[in-house]
Specification:
The complex is a heterodimer of chains A (about 400) and B (about 500).
Chain A: E1 3-4, H1 9-22, E2 26-29, E3 45-48, E4 55-59, E5 64-68, H2 73-82, E6 85-86, H3 95-98, H4 106-111, H5 119-122, E7 129-136, E8 141-145, H6 157-161, E9 169-177, E10 179-180, E11 184-191, H7 195-206, E12 212-218, H8 220-223, H9 229-232, E13 238-245, H10 247-261, E14 265-267, H11 269-281, E15 291-298, H12 303-313, E16 318-322, E17 327-333, H13 334-337, H14 343-350, E18 355-361, H15 364-369, H16 378-391
Parallel strand pairs in A: 1-3, 2-3
Antiparallel strand pairs in A: 4-5, 5-9, 6-10, 7-8, 7-9, 11-13, 11-14, 12-13, 15-17, 15-18, 16-17
Helix pairs in contact in A: 12-14
Chain B: H1 9-13, H2 15-25, E1 31-32, H3 35-38, E2 55-57, H4 62-74, E3 78-82, E4 98-102, E5 109-113, E6 118-121, H5 127-134, E7 139-140, H6 153-159, H7 166-169, E8 176-182, E9 188-192, H8 203-207, E10 216-223, E11 225-226, E12 230-238, H9 241-253, E13 260-265, H10 266-276, E14 286-294, H11 296-312, E15 317-320, H12 324-335, H13 337-344, E16 347-350, E17 353-354, H14 360-374, E18 378-383, E19 388-395, H15 402-419, H16 438-441, H17 444-457, H18 475-479
Parallel strand pairs in B: 2-4, 3-4
Antiparallel strand pairs in B: 1-2, 5-6, 6-10, 7-11, 8-9, 8-10, 12-14, 12-15, 13-14, 13-18, 16-19, 17-19, 18-19
Helix pairs in contact in B: 9-11, 10-12, 10-13, 14-15
Classes of the chains: A alpha+beta (about 400), B alpha+beta (about 500).
């Protein structure tokens, strides 16, 4: 096992070309904060791209930011904040969840197609990914997309690269669309609703023209773990809706939402920021101890049915909802989850709902014998394999990270 | 003119047999054989290019699409998919030796799911048809290409269509959540759905904007949005296009993302005003239309903010719409800009590059110089928020050589867009039109990588060949490993 630390894209490409020629495989790492996501790496060597870092170009008026792959998210977010802008997809910080202390980087956020609570309104990393340079499995440097916000020249390779977990190409530089940071924000907290009531209410709120930018439901035991006082203090479940924008607009829309769903407690901007960061980070809201953590994406209206089915399967199940029910975070006691991390029973509970599930937190041995991502079948699985071969036919890049052979 | 791949004479020789085989799959009037009936399909919105298709097939079910593609794949017959045929880049230009697969009969809305804000439709439903189906529920489908009354959602998926609202609400790719598609070898697969994201590679993401070259879309699930309660528009005159461009930069720099933001140059203003009498300022060199949408409190707040910014940037006139009628009137000229230009010139050629917005002054100046060189005029309308430029080159196809000059002028404009850091196409697609300019943006390795993706979906290169890529795909060659001997250079490369 050799660790390669190239200083630029050309050197990194040389390493990949060498590995392809020698039949060697590479684990692609930068900050390493998300190394535990996906199936455990089984590569011969490590390609550490952390020296490919730094913002290359940031033009706030053009809504464009170009940075090398291993640029720390903290650096990007600080630059954006100074110009009152942001990444609209609100990439969450999963260091606590994954139990790593590495530095989250832009490349990792894109490779995992991250999205935080604003996903429900603004989309995921894929939706803001405009162009990139990368190294394919032959060791060739190639590029796609552009450095403007509107472009349909050629296939939209950004979509493929986002969420490919480094199995198609090694990202070296990326251009993103950035957006203005809202002037202010508030959160309306409604108390005491059962899941079956809360999810339809969240969806009703999302169907109003009041531009709800985040919609979560925390059952009572989850809400009590919150570090935000207004959330933890209540006696029961907490249903949270965020509104963002210019101050007069937020005030108007908050009143409109309350006249529809009833009066709630309001969190001001600073508390709002803490609550939604906490929801994105997940860890603090689920039980501590030996846990398996699942991330489920059902059709939103099916979410309460899914969690009822899960509670019927697992005494230890604790869940909360984001994205208006489109995202369920599920914590299971490790012993009760069993050797597959609970996969067969979790997926059975999801079957009727449509959607997909990912085992996010489990030890390597569990993730090695379980389909971490929703298994694919038939013609679709075959098509995915052919796509992989079109980028990395020898399986040099992050072999087996997503699925067997991918 | 750009040449299409030479016709396969062996396929043409089997034409009668192919028609019979297709009739067995799609009975009755679903197979169009007579020349005068095929004529209706000979071109799309890029009317300078025409080609009679070998045969036209109009299936009605996914099962028929599967069978047609299986047959064509097994018999090495090329296929060109087509929606409403409104492409401005020749994406649906037929092939002499190809089956034209029209999806027009897939025209049903299958499901309206209000709670999940999703609509499931067949690909031949029009863009505006989706909005009509949900507007009673206070919802709408956001991407709004100017052909929205006619263009189909299947075509929007193929082209990743935009529109005037896409800076704020995204392109097709940001609003389509699922599709059913059939690959060239006749396998139907579902990508995405009503849920967020999906397992595996984002094939949905790459299908959107693939210009009908990766698969035939047979069903589309879109996300619809709550209709904004109100909208107001500002009509702002500037003494120069640069001034208008600076104002746009300041609006965005101030944290405002308008629902729409459009610039027109003097020639476009004059043509539009003469056509629709919208009250456009004829003394201005540039007109900026800014639309703010949302709840009333937000719209009024932002109208005031943009008015103040405009005043600081040398606006010579500024009017805010006081009623819905007036807002629509402000837009009427912009929306009619293409036909308005059609009134002052026998023909026009619409271009579609994107540039970094800050280069607008520079680019328009160089376009003026090109006008002199080519002896042709160009009117400009410009999606200012996202830098998407639509120069309309005025020409007369009846004058020998003018079409060729217009095409050369257009190519020069697109090269200029790339030179200043932009791209060849913002929303119309590469198609046939810009195919041979792809190497101004991409090198051979970049294009090979795109083609390898094509090979994963369509190994025999039978689906819509001759579009987008200057070279036909050679999958066997591209798939071979070209690896050098296992020498690792860079002796200083740290390794542990």
């Amino acid at each position: 096992m050799t660790v390669f630390q190239p200083s630029d894209a050309a050197e990194a490409a040389e390493v990949v070309a060498w590995a392809a020629a020698e039949g060697q495989s590479l684990e692609i790492v930068a900050g390493g904060s998300k190394r535990g996501l996906g199936r455990p790496p089984r590569a011969d060597h490590r390609l550490d791209v952390s020296r490919l870092a730094g913002i290359v170009d940031y033009d706030p008026a053009e809504l464009i930011l170009t940075a090398r792959a291993a640029t720390p998210m903290a650096e990007i977010e600080a630059e954006l904040k100074a110009k009152r802008q942001m990444l609209a997809f609100e990439p969450p910080d999963w260091r606590g969840l994954m139990g790593g202390d590495g530095e989250p980087t832009l490349g990792g956020v894109l490779a995992c197609n991250f999205a935080g609570p604003r996903r429900v309104r603004a989309g995921a990393a894929r939706d803001y990914f405009l162009g990139f340079s990368a190294i394919n499995g032959w060791g060739e440097v190639w590029k796609a997309g552009g450095k403007v916000v509107k472009n349909v020249t050629g296939y939209d390779m950004c979509k493929l690269q986002a969420g490919a977990h480094g199995t198609l190409s090694v990202l070296t530089e990326a251009t993103l669309k950035v957006m203005p940071r809202p002037e202010t924000a508030c959160t309306i907290l409604l108390e005491g609703m059962a899941d079956e009531i809360a999810i339809p209410e969240l969806l009703r709120a999302l169907n109003t023209p009041y531009e709800v930018s985040a919609a979560a439901h925390l059952p009572a035991s989850v809400a009590r773990r919150s570090a935000v006082e207004g959330v933890a203090q209540g006696l029961g479940a907490v249903t949270a809706l965020r509104l963002e924008g210019p101050a007069p607009s937020v005030a108007f829309r908050a009143n409109a939402i309350e006249s529809l769903l009833g009066h709630g407690l309001r969190l001001a901007a600073a508390e709002t920021e803490r609550l939604w960061a906490e929801i994105g980070q997940v860890r603090g809201l689920l039980p501590s101890g030996r846990q398996r953590v699942w991330r489920l994406c059902p059709t939103p209206t099916s979410a309460p049915v899914v969690s009822n089915a899960l509670r019927a399967q697992f005494d230890s199940a604790e869940a909360f909802y984001d994205w208006g029910g489109g995202l369920i975070w599920l914590g299971l006691d490790a012993d009760e989850a069993g050797p597959d991390g609970g996969a067969s029973r979790v997926r059975a509970a999801m079957r009727e709902a449509g959607g997909h599930s990912t085992l996010v937190v489990a030890p390597d041995d569990v993730r090695a014998r379980t389909a971490v991502f929703e298994p694919l079948h038939g013609a679709l699985a075959a098509l995915m394999k052919r796509v992989k071969s079109g980028f990395d036919p020898r399986g040099v890049l992050n072999p087996g990270r997503m699925h067997e052979g991918q | 003119m750009i040449a299409m791949p030479p016709a396969d004479q062996a396929v043409l020789a089997r034409r009668a047999e192919i028609v019979v085989a297709l009739r067995r799959i799609v009975p009755g009037e679903g197979v169009i054989d007579a020349e005068h009936e095929r004529r209706a399909f000979e071109c799309d919105g890029l009317t300078a290019y025409r080609q009679l298709p070998m045969v036209v097939v109009l299936p009605e079910t996914t099962a028929q699409v599967v069978e047609v593609l299986r047959y064509c794949s097994a018999n090495n017959v090329k296929v060109v998919p087509r929606g409403a045929g409104t492409s401005l880049s020749g994406g649906a230009l037929p092939l002499e030796d190809g089956v034209l697969l029209g999806l027009g009969k897939f025209n049903r809305i299958l499901e309206i799911d209000i709670a999940n804000r999703c609509v499931v439709v067949q690909p031949g439903v029009t863009n505006l048809g989706i909005t009509h189906a949900v507007q009673a529920h206070g919802l709408y489908y956001a991407p709004d290409p100017s052909s929205q009354i006619a263009c189909t959602i299947g075509g929007n998926v193929a082209e990743n269509s935009g529109g005037v609202h896409c800076l704020k609400y995204g392109l097709t790719t940001n609003n389509v959540v699922g599709i059913e598609m059939v690959t060239m070898d006749g396998e139907a697969v579902r990508l995405g759905g009503k849920h967020f994201d999906a397992s595996g590679y984002d094939l949905l993401g790459v299908m959107v904007g693939s210009e009908g070259m990766l698969g035939v879309v047979t069903e589309v699930t879109v996300r619809v949005l709550p209709t904004p309660p109100g909208a107001r528009a500002l009509m702002i005159g500037f003494p120069s296009v640069e001034g208008a461009g600076d104002c746009v930069a300041a609006v965005i720099g101030d944290g405002i993302i308008p629902g729409g933001m459009e610039i027109m140059d003097r020639l476009a203003i004059e043509a539009a005003e003469a056509f629709v009498h919208a009250g456009y300022p004829l003394d201005a060199d540039a007109l900026l239309i800014v639309e703010l949408d949302g709840c009333e409190a937000e719209v009024d707040h932002l109208i005031a903010a943009v008015e103040a910014i405009a005043a600081r940037h040398g606006a010579t006139s500024c009017r805010a719409s006081q009623s819905e009628e007036e807002r629509l009137l402000f837009w009427a000229g912009r929306k009619a800009a293409f036909p308005a230009v059609g009134r002052i010139s026998p023909d026009y050629y619409c271009m579609d590059g994107t540039i970094p917005r800050k280069r607008i002054g520079d680019v328009l100046l160089r376009m003026k110089q090109m006008e002199a060189r080519y002896g042709l005029r160009a009117a400009n309308v410009f999606h200012a928020g996202d830098g998407n430029l639509h120069p309309l080159i005025l020409y007369d196809a009846n004058k020998p050589g003018e079409l060729e000059r217009a095409e050369a002028f257009g190519s020069d404009i697109l090269r200029l867009c790339v030179e200043v850091g932009g791209v060849l196409t913002g929303e119309h697609g590469v198609g046939v039109e810009k195919r041979d300019l792809m190497d101004t943006m991409f090198n051979e390795i970049d294009l090979n990588q795109q083609q390898r993706l094509k090979c994963a979906f369509d190994e025999k290169s039978l689906l819509n060949p001759g579009k987008v890529f200057p070279q036909l795909c050679r999958c066997a060659e591209l798939g071979r490993m070209h690896v050098r001997a296992g020498q690792l250079s860079f002796p200083n490369l740290p390794r542990f």
